[in-house]
Every structure is written in structure tokens, then in C-alpha cells.
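Notes on consecutive records. When two proteins share a document, each keeps its own sequence and its own C-alpha cell line. Never mix them. Below: protein one.
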Amino acid sequence: MSTAVKTTAYGTGSGLLVEPVEGGSLADVEPKVLRDLLAEAGFLLLRGFDSDMDSFTTLVQNTSTSTTLDPARDFYSEVAQKVDAGFDEVGLHTENGNSPFRAHVAWFFCEKAASSGSQTTVCDGYRVWDAFSPAAREAFAAQDIVYSRYVSEAQWRAMAHHLLGKTKPAEEIKVEELLALASQLDGTEIVPQEDGGVRYSFRTPAAGTTVFGERLSFANSILGPSFNYEKPTITFADGTAFPPELIAEVEEVTARLTENLDWQDGDAAVIDNTRVMHGRRAITDPDRTIYNALSYIEAPAA
């Protein structure tokens, strides 16, 4: 039985608060309804549903074609991993946006909300791109950006294990299989290292199209964190650094357009990871408990 929903505006942009009309479970939200709302809004906050880890997992699986992961986090269900990036504020980013494995959708489930602060932040890349000066848009449109970093052997093996459909134990995967996966991804180069790790570079537009359409969105990980990994080097494709005045404009515009998700127990959030960046205010209540999932969804019919 599907759960009928109603929507109201959330925040200053196109985000939506989604609530059940007459009660119902997260697990029974109609997948097409959710995808259509996400295409319109960029991010959704689902509130008032019967919710737990099982219903959240079912919602993710019903709406997605496949799931992916952050190899540095532990699983708490078939799809969910605990958010554990320390206590400091986390900069805006897209999940796995500094790698060729960026998911279409980032999902969050709040099992226990913080008593103060600790909000998840969201920033719509459509709004950012439109708010940039012509000079900033010209700079980012002129050439791609490149992320490069080292990834440990345990981390790349965990990712490859998942990408290969868990058909082979992680410890049996050869680096050649990772290289074969990377060869199918535009703009990606991976160089094996003597210690078993790899160093990769990933070239991508700073502002690109989304899973739902051709409109340009400034959705990337230029300002993002590196809690469980080596901090990446980020440059323009020709190897030059971003001018300080350009980064200053990115920081000013995104800060002005950033909104808070003020969590309540049992809330879930759905974020178009190809359009909307997210981050986090500093954690002031360490007892808050939030899980996330990453997935791919069907692109809309042409």
C-alpha cells in the first residue's frame, strides 16, 4: 500500500518538506513520486512518517537502481553507513564528488536528532551558478577541474568489491580490475603505488548537467572535507591553481545560499547529489545519530 504525501516549501529555494497525508511508512512512499519531487526540488526533507532503519533501507532500495558507498565507513544495514566525520564543521561537497564514483542521490536518516546545532547544510548548485559574476562563470566554464589524491589499498579494495557487485572477496581483487573499471570512466587515471595503494586523478566540470536535466549546476567538492582520506589536490585542468578572488567568490556566494536541515527524530532527507551540495554545522551534541546512503537512480525518459 503506497503512502500518499503532501508537500510544502522548505527554506528559501525550491526545497520541499514532504509529509504523509494520513500516516504511513517511509517504505511505502511511491518511488516515482519521490523521484519527480526530487527533480523539481533538488532536496527533500521527509518528516512524520513511520521510520526506522528497515523502512529507510527499503525506501532507498525501492527508489534506486543500485547503491554505492564510502569505503571508509562501516555499514549498519544493506545500504546505510553511519555519518562519522568528526565534530568540526564540514564544508559543502557532493558525496564522492572528488572521484569518478559520484552517486546520483545522497540519502540521510536521523535516528536521534541533536539537542542543539549540528544541522546538515544544503546549497543548490543551480542557484549558485546563477548568482556568480559573469567572470566566475567564465572561469569555471573555460576548463574542467581536476582532483588528485592517494587512496590506500584497503579503501580502493572496498570500493572495487562493491562496484563489482560483491562477486569477489575484496582481498582477492587485483589492481588490474580496478584499472579496468576506471578505463570506462571519462577523465579518470589511476596509477598503482608500491605500497599497494593507488593515486588517481579525476577530471570533471565544476558546473555540469544533472541526472534530471541539462541545466548547469555548480555542484562539486572544491570546498569539501577529507576526514577519512588524504586531502586532494584540486586545480584547473591545465594545472593552475584557482585564483584567490575566485575562491573568495565561491565561498561568499555559497555561504549566502546555504540552508540548514533542522533535524527531528525519524526524519529522512533525499538530496540530488548531481545538483545540490551538502555539509554540516559543527556538532555541539555528540549524541546525535545520522546515517547516510548513496545510490544511482534511473534518468528520466528523453
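Protein two starts on the next line and is unrelated to protein one.
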Amino acid sequence: MQLENAKIAIIGLGYVGLPLALEFGKKYPVLGFDINESRVKELQKGEDRTQEADLTLLNDLIKKGQSGGSGLVFSNKVTDLSSYNVFIVTVPTPIDHFKKPDLTPLLKASETLGKILKQGDVVIYESTVYPGCTEEDCVPVLERFSGLTYNKDFFCGYSPERINPGDKVNTLTKIKKVTSGSTPAITDFVDDLYKSIITAGTHKAPNMKVAEASKAIENAQRDVNISFVNELALIFDRVGIDTNDVIEAAGTKWNFLKYKPGLVGGHCIGVDPYYLAHKAESLGYHPQVILSGRRVNDSMGMFVASKVVKLMIGKGHTIKGSRALILGVTFKENCPDVRNTKVVDIYHELTQFGLAVDIYDPWADAVEVKHEYGLELLPKLDTQKYDAVVVAVSHEEFRAIDFKAMKAANTVIFDTKAFLERDLVDARL
């Protein structure tokens, strides 16, 4: 396929798919496809709940797309996909309740594409998976529903997403992109396609398994490093010293990596290691380091809640019936993304101690939080009625809160992000 003939359909319009559609829409005819009708209608109106899109650019590309050339159109109708020849899959790859990979969205997307796949089409996956998933799990679905033969009638590529939600500096085009393809010619095509929009350049992996593995270990490495400092936080809490002070001291050496303790949620770091572990276990190897890091990181919500309760007892509070406020429910600061947030672990643990717990987050969508976690968000904040406050996310809006007055009223303040001045808090991670 020639690059100038590419007509691109992006499958999945979340935090990964929409930025990709916007960049490709500047140079190619692009269809943004999502099975969520309300999401499609929202984008057709030039709106974006994820707050990732430049709305001026979005509306300009929608107008441009109406002319039939480069630009952007949106749809949730499968039949609209049939006139495109390059399909980029950016659907979620979550884990289930047993922390096993849930490939349902990925396989459903592959099934949908299989029904409209044509001779010469290229399917590129960006969703995070374990090494071998594209060829072992997705390709058979494409073949079964299309009746076509892999690497003869249609081709595949893999280019792992590197989107960082909420980051307005390290955006899509400024992060080097790993590319790969199912044949040497398709590898070149996929690489050239991404090179046409990624100003930071690309890295051509030798095969798709390498590209898949590279994504998995990026986040597994961060997860293990954060689990190390989280474990240090558990130790230093018993010692009676501040972990952040220790990190600052150790950081004076040039080769010390200054990772900070905290809650590890989100769509990547808290999920991807389980994909790598699943693949290892399917091959007869039980990963020790990766899973031990996951256990430590998954325990931090329980630790925070337990610490808050101990601090409350130390200040003379009666636990049962006391009121607590959690500030922030998104998985990171200044971002509306609530996927796999570990703040809910703090909430559930505090309620089990008998506290009445409220959550306030000016960034999060209350409807989404209710749907995903069954939790109600406060519509507005009144900080004067709480016995404990947990700063779970360091949204900039929280700097305006009068924590000094709360502390004067004997409120326990726990800062999970080392976000506030030290004299304002009773403890921090």
C-alpha cells in the first residue's frame, strides 16, 4: 500500500484513539469509530470529555472532513468502516476481578474489523498486550470473520501507545514511537505512516512480539521501581522517619533514581505487569519480582487508611461515626481519568473502620465514577465538618483549600502525594 492512498479508521476514541485521530486527520482522511454512541455524538459536536483534544483543531478537522479529503469524521456504524484501508485499534485492555487479562474489547474489535476487511487492508494494534497476542489471539479472529488469509490478503502491525493522559508537554507527536509489522514491507509502511506525524521519530522493532514486549516492560519497570519506594515507605513509617526526606538525601548521588511513593493506578502501570506475568505463567515461569511489586503497590490504599485511623485515635477521635473526606478520585493529578484508580481502596478501607466518607474531585465525571465504582461525588466542598482529610490526588485546585484552619480544628490531614507544606499535615507518604 502506498502512503498517499491511506484512509485511516481509528477504532476506539478514548485517551489514546482521539489524539491519534486528530494528528492523522491533519494529513489523511480519518474515521473515528467507537461503539459508544454518546461518545460519537459528543465528538461530532466538537466536544471532548477527556479534555485531551484541542477543541479548535477538533472542529477544524470535522469541517475539513466533510469535504471528503483529509480531515476527521466520526461514526458508530460498522458499515462506515468498509471504505477505509488502514485500521488502528486503540481499545482498552483491562484486567478482570482475578487480575487476569481481559481481551474482550480487543477481540470484539477484531471481530468487527474481520467483517469488513478487504484485500490489501492493514490492521495496526496499539492496545497494550502481552508478547504474541496480536498474532496468537487477534489474527485468528480477523481470519475467521473475514475469510481472508493473514500476510497474503491482509496484514498487521503493532505500535504500542505512549499517551500520558493530562500531560500537555509530552504529547503524542513528541514521544518516539515504536513500530512493527507482520512482513518487512508492512513494517516499512507502518513506520512511514507514524513517521508522517511523530516529530520525535520512530524506532522500528524487528518484529511485533518485540514491540508488544517493549510496551509491557516499560510499565512493569516503573511499577517495580515504585513498589520499591512504597516498601521503603512502609519500613520508614515504622522507623519514624519521612520517606521523602530519605529520598532527597539519597538523591544527592548522581545515579540514584528519585521515584516517589504513592498509589499506583491508571490504565498502564497498575495493569500491564499482569499481562506480562500472564504470558510468563502460560510458558511455565512464575515471575517473582513483577508480582511482588504488584502486591506491594496494591496494598498502599489499605496502608493509608490504617495510618489515618491510627492518627485519628492519637488525636482523641472516636472512629465509628467520624467523618472523613478524600480529596481526589482520579488516578493522577489534573486529569479526569478514573480508570483503575486506587483511591477507591482508601474509601472502602475507611468505611470498613466505620467512618462516613465523602469524596470530592473537581476533575472527575460524577456519572462515570458512579457507574464504574458505585460512589457518589460531592458537588461542592465544605471542609469544616471532617475529622480526617486524605489528599489522594494533587489537583492544583486543592492548593486553595484552607488546610491550616482544618488542622487547627483538630482534623487529621494525610497527604499521599507530599503535595502540601509539611507543617500543614499530620503525615504523608
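For the record: The mean pLDDT is 95.
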